[in-house]
Write a structure and sequence with these properties.
Number of helices of chain A: 11
CATH topology of the largest domain in chain B: TIM Barrel
Radius of gyration of chain A: 19 Å
Shape of chain A: globular
Largest interface: A-B, 29 and 23 residues
Shape of chain B: globular
CATH class of the largest domain in chain B: Alpha Beta
Largest sheet of chain B: 8 strands, mixed
Helix content of chain A: 25-40%
Number of strands of chain B: 18
Strand content of chain B: 15-25%
Radius of gyration of chain B: 21 Å
Helix content of chain B: 25-40%
CATH architecture of the largest domain in chain B: Alpha-Beta Barrel
Oligomer: heterodimer
Number of helices of chain B: 13
Structural class of chain B: alpha/beta
Number of strands of chain A: 9
CATH superfamily of the largest domain in chain B: Metal-dependent hydrolases
């Protein structure tokens, strides 16, 4: 495989559009970007004069702040809009909102939207580059990239590792992007969660599906826990949070079956005592805060590769 | 029923290949049309001074096609379609008659709405319109409509289409009551709890696209309920727009037991699967319909059902939506696609030329059976009956252009498809209402005095 020097698309809609060399390129670029965050003056002019709009139609703290910080460290001009403060509450459609923004000539639009495929809709008519910051239950590509960067940092590689992903798989865009990325990079992926929250078609992607947490965790190099949303209790998916924790909650005891140097990840926000015990979340195997730090670096890399031109960071 | 009979002109449609399954005709015949009705059928009929129109070689004259599942949207949603634009779309697609669904605003649950629809249809004077009344008031699922009154006003069937008949008890009563008038109940089979807020077929494709699923059994469970109730009551149930192989299995079981169950399939369910949702940028809202596009095994089951005779009718489920409504995210866009003008090319190309069924069998699916199920005129060419005829050009190649559809709405997933076979002309009550400009020779079917 020849190493990619740029991304083929001017959008980042999902991991499904990236090939392994593009994933490597983003991760390698992120390593360089991460160094910027260690400087006293944490800013480079890579995107000076470029405009990035952060369009968030769904509640978000870490992803929105992470993108904003990434944009600022690259010297881009940024604007942020959240659904509650926009014309959306006046009944404006997504397409019209974005056409209005585009009239102000942004270079990149970062979109978080509760409907799967929303960034794909924009890509059919937008002049700006679209970065998917999470669409419905579909993809969250920058999360999967920052997870991969975190794993690579700790393990030195991706190929050949055993990664367990555990939780509400059906409703998780983090799951979909991670499965796509990790399988492309030669990782052995096991997924685990209640049968009622198991999406169809995962086995066809070469993923091992199990309903046993012990089986998923056994000898795993990485255990990635997903957030269980409380509203899942209403859809008759689960009998109780108590039982969920008993069957699928990650405790120190259950982690003993993993590889000795296992790392524990979580995309946040966590439900302590539901999917993960605090002792594990705050323990020595946890890299949850590393993930947050790497989020900024990965988003800098993505923005730079999509909007920067011939500028060395 | 609208009366579009032309009482003045007499003419002869000369030497066309006529396929009329119910009379057993398949050969070249002359049809003499007088006063809007078929006056004579035979070889070398004398033209004795009346105008004569030669049918070009390769064209086929059939009984007028009937689409028994159409949403005309009027009253209430005229921005999507009107009775005039919808019946013109029908004529442009080769249909001489349509049955229109009651989910208008207001719902067609009273004779006054039925009369309004028929009045508008008569004013438009294109395809004939047969209204279908609601099963329950407002299609709310609690109280039966005045079916006797609706029947007298002109309704030919009852349905709460868009919603399934809400409870087993209501369905039982509807089947019993409607059977007094020998009228079928048309069911949109879908268990609401299993459908949930799904937007696409529950399967690997929706799963990876992050779209909420509608399982196939949401349809088949309701079908099994209704078939059991038809068996209990002796009433006639007709399953609309079947999509799932499990539903077809239930229909076959019911038919083998002698239950009065019939069913229809829409062209998109035997031509497309959910895989299409992944094409291009993905999430094309013109691929969002209810029931959803299902898997290849389901598509193949529909083709097999058409081949072996288990499926009675092809209907379009013509569901116009304004472009603004479809320009939303997949979750928010409404269900449905237009179908009147794409049906015949899809059927001839994908079923007849593909060797699945004969042209004669296609005429049964698109004309004979709908007429028989709804107990309406047509479905065969007989002396004395209104001259409702469709002229097909089975070997003509056409390219579908959504923008060029005459329907008020353009929400078709078949834009750009090149298909072999189309309607060349549509004749209603002896009047040549439409000749297809895309087909060489079709214009010659326009009688000279109409030029």
């Amino acid at each position: 495989m020849t190493a990619a020097v740029r991304l083929r698309s001017r959008h980042l809609l999902g991991i499904s559009d990236l090939d392994p060399s593009e994933i490597e390129l983003i991760l390698d670029t992120a390593v360089a970007m991460k160094e910027i965050g260690t400087r006293t003056i944490k800013k480079v002019p890579a995107l000076r004069g470029r405009t990035v709009v952060n369009l968030f139609f769904e509640a978000s703290t870490r992803t929105r702040l992470s993108f904003e910080l990434a944009e600022k460290r690259l010297s881009a001009d940024t604007m942020g809009i959240t659904a509650a403060a926009s014309s959306v509450i006046k009944g404006e459609t997504l397409a019209d909102t974005v056409r209005t923004l585009e009239a102000m000539s942004p270079d990149i639009i970062v979109l978080r939207h509760p409907s799967s495929g929303a960034p794909h809709l924009l890509s059919t008519f937008c002049h700006s580059g679209i970065v998917n910051a999470g669409d419905g239950m579909h993809e969250h590509p920058t999360q999967a990239l920052l997870d991969a960067l975190t794993i690579r940092e700790r393990k030195g590689r991706l190929a050949g590792l055993k990664v367990a992903i555990v939780g509400d798989l059906m409703h998780s865009r983090v799951l979909r992007s991670n499965v796509l990325l990790l399988t492309k990079m030669g990782v052995e992926v096991r997924v685990c969660g209640p049968r009622t929250l198991m999406p169809l078609g995962l086995s066809a992607l070469g993923v091992h599906v199990t309903y046993s947490l012990d089986e998923a965790v056994k000898d795993a190099d990485v255990v990635m826990m997903l957030r269980l949303q409380h509203e899942r209790m209403n859809g008759m998916f689960l009998p109780s949070l108590r039982e969920y924790f008993t069957l699928f909650g990650l405790t120190r005891e259950r982690l003993k079956h993993a590889a000795p140097d296992v790392i524990v990840m979580h995309p946040g926000p966590m439900n302590r005592g539901v999917e993960i015990d605090s002792v594990v979340a705050d323990g020595p195997r946890s890299v949850i805060l590393d993930q947050v730090a790497n989020g900024v670096a990965v988003r800098m890399a993505v923005l730079y590769l999509l909007a920067g031109e011939d500028v060395t960071p | 029923m609208t009366d579009v009979t032309d009482v003045t002109n007499a003419w002869v449609l000369k030497n066309g290949r006529v396929i009329d399954p119910r009379s057993g005709r398949d050969g070249h015949f002359d049809l003499r049309i007088e006063g809007g009705r078929i006056a004579a059928i035979g070889k070398d009929l004398p033209t004795d001074g009346v105008r004569s129109v030669e049918v070009p070689a390769g064209f086929v004259v059939t009984p007028g096609l009937i689409d028994m599942h159409v949403h005309l949207r009027e009253p209430g949603q005229e921005h999507k379609e009107t009775i005039a634009t919808g019946t013109w779309s029908a004529v442009a697609g080769g249909f001489t008659a349509v049955a229109c669904m009651p989910n208008t605003d207001p719902v067609n649950d009273s004779a006054s709405v039925t009369q309004f629809i028929l009045k508008r249809a008569a004013e438009a004077n294109f395809a004939r319109v047969y209204p279908i009344g609601a099963v329950s008031i407002g299609s709310q699922g609690s109280q039966l409509t005045e079916m006797g009154d609706l029947r007298t006003a002109g309704c030919v069937a009852f349905t709460d289409d868009g919603h399934p008949v809400a409870t087993a008890l209501l369905m039982r009563r509807a089947l019993e009551y409607a059977s007094m008038f020998d009228v079928p109940i048309i069911e949109h089979c879908e268990d609401p709890s299993l459908k949930g807020d799904g937007v696409a077929h529950e399967g690997a494709v929706a799963s990876m696209l992050g779209l909420r699923g509608i399982p196939s059994v949401a349809e088949s469970i309701m079908a099994e309920r209704d078939i059991s109730l038809a068996e209990l009551t002796g009433g006639r149930v007709h399953l609309a727009h079947m999509s799932a192989r499990q539903t077809l299995r239930a229909v076959r079981d019911g038919k083998s037991r002698g239950v009065k169950v019939t069913c229809e399939v829409a062209p998109h369910h035997f031509t497309l699967t959910d895989e299409a949702l992944k094409e291009g940028a993905g999430y094309n809202t013109n691929l969002k319909m209810n029931p959803p596009l299902r898997e290849e095994a389901d598509r193949l089951a529909m083709v097999e059902g058409l081949r072996d005779g288990s499926i009675d009718v092809i209907s379009t489920d013509h569901a116009p939506h304004h472009a603004d409504e479809k320009a939303l995210t997949f979750d928010h866009a409404p269900f449905g696609i237009v179908g009147l003008e794409t049906c015949v090319p899809l059927c001839i190309d994908r079923l007849v030329h593909a060797g699945v069924i004969s042209l004669s069998r296609l005429v049964e699916l698109l004309s004979c059976r709908p007429a028989e199920l709804l107990r309406i005129p047509g479905g065969t060419i007989t002396v004395g009956a209104p001259a409702d005829l469709t002229v097909l050009a089975p070997d003509a190649s056409v390219t579908i252009s959504a923008g060029a559809l005459v329907s008020k709405s353009k929400n078709s997933p078949f834009d750009g498809w090149t298909l072999k076979g189309a309607a060349a002309a549509t004749i209603v009550g002896g009047r040549v209402l439409y000749t297809n400009p895309a087909i060489p020779g079709a214009a010659s079917l326009t009688p000279s005095w109409e030029n």
